[in-house]
Amino acid sequence: MIRIQNLRYSYPSSPHPSLKDISLEIGEGSLFGLLGPNGAGKTTLLSILSGLLPCPPGQVWINDLDLAQPGTLQRTRLALVPQEYAFYLPLTVQQNLEFFAGVQGLNQQQRQQRIARAAAQTGLSERLGDRAGNLSGGLKRRLNLAIGLLNEPRLLLLDEPTVGIDPHSRHFILQTIAALNAQGTTVIYTSHYMEEVESLCDRIAIVDHGEIRLQGELQALLEKQGSERLSLELQQPLGAGERALLPALVTVSDCGRQLDAQPAGIRELLSLVQQLQHLGIVRVRYGQHNLESLFLDLTHRSLRD
Amino acid sequence: MSATGFLIRKELQLLGRDPHGLALLFLMPAVFILVMTFALQNQYSLNTDTRLDYLLLDRDQSEASARFVEGLAEVGTFNRLPDSGDEAALRARAQADDAKFLLIINTGFTGQLAAQQTAVELLFAPGTSPIFTVVVESQVSFLLKRLSLELSYGELLESAEDIRQLINNNDLYRASSLFEGEQQYPTSVQQNVPAWLLFAMFFIAIPLSTTFISERQQGTLTRLRSQGIGRGQLLAGKLIPYFGINLLQVVMLFLIGLYLVPWLGGDQLTLGQHPWALLVIALAASLAAVCYALLVAQLAGTVEQATMFAAVCNIIMAALGGVMVPRFIMPATMQQLSDLSPMAWGLEGFFDILLRGGDVMSVLPEAGKLLLFAAAMVALATLIERRRA
Description:
B: 4-stranded mixed beta sheet
């Protein structure tokens, strides 16, 4: 169980704090989605959890142990899988796995067992002799994940593990993560792909400008926001006159071309459709809230911004 | 094997997969040593087997000119080439660097000598070194003056045996070198082996800094640090293998000087009276090179920047430090500037042992400078890394 309480963090070179009073609870065995636009503070949070950045005392506890205390990290059996291909492209898959297992102080027998297991979990058993640089993007992502599994982690931090790969490899990696979670591994997962988070995670937190904007069980959050929503996509952006007509429960995004109404604002927005027709209505969507719309409502930014 | 052991093995595996890096560290200096040793051989062996080829045109064809020609033939460093053809043809051959110089004995040679007028013309080939022109001019001048004395005071000299002996006496001085090797003088190989060795040692800055930067960019360093690998272990994992590679360079390039160069017909490298002292200067130079590579890794943001920066800096340090051009050829100001280059410190250290019969104590000043340089590089690299963090 991870408990974060009023965590603040500023980089020495920046006058603005990257994290402001972050408080979070992530239960053991949970598959937790951490969402936020670029620069929101996700990587800073993962860096503190993985020990790359110093943790202020009394603000982060893992299994009731203060992360700032020496030895906590070593007892946690944590693995960070960075977004980049964090391995050596000139070496073979086997050499990479040997190296990363070796630096963890595993003996030869342990190394062989762990390498075989991690390779099997990620479907790389047949590719151990291949040079890492010659692997496809999807197989490189799997190797990135396999290295993270070598210490049989109880807490796995995944930073965008499916960026830039084909649907087949993405599906394989998501299945692997779900299987690991089913075996009891706590997973913290960041991604730009909302549908991945929505299908995979049981709990989420949305971070923006170093603050938690929302957290909790995904289904409960979606229901709490209301089941209905109406979106209008315009060809031309709203002018000042049209903006003044909008009711308070309608949010504007995409430089004035996207209008989203909360359930209580739907009727009022519909009554304005006639007056907005001269801007060219490209699309009207009516449906349930999903994670993407929830995110847009909270941050007024697309996740890929 | 410990974590540091795995870090070292990984570094060697990466280098093993990098043919360009291997060529840069081992093939390039080996080729430089062979090429430069043979190319500069004559610069160093002027006192032994240098032959200055020349062409001769005797317009006078007199008894005096014949004696002068005989005198020229007795000069050990001069080698007269067959000189068939007219003056234009001989000039053309000298112009084309077939010979170092063309010597023309003017018509009326005897009278001109007696009247102390120009009796001989010396025409040097365009590529002749100024050192050689000085040697030729002094020899020709000596022969002409001796002949002039003999022609003017021949009868007097016949009776004054002591004056005649004085003119022909070459035993008034004895030249030798303080170099304590099997040969009398230091040779080209003595300059080139340590010089290009130092050049190659500092070139580890390229593979070392580029792997460091790749690790930083690809997140591998992040991953290793998240696995609890400390900065000390990471540093040791870099320094130890490249330290070993530097020592391998020392062994390989010295073996080339000891066995390959003489086998190919060059002079053999001699190791001085205290060869083990070479290890002291080699270790200090290696530490300086490795720490310099760490600074390059911190200064450069990309692999391309590191490669360019390290290569340019190495060439400047080598040019200044007497690797490409021996320091004794440089003018005084350049020699003072040369003292700024760590390669010059290393080279002086090697020369202390190889040429001057020095021991461990005699190389301590140079080794000390290199160690201070290494400490300064590490301090700067640490400062930059902290600022970046």
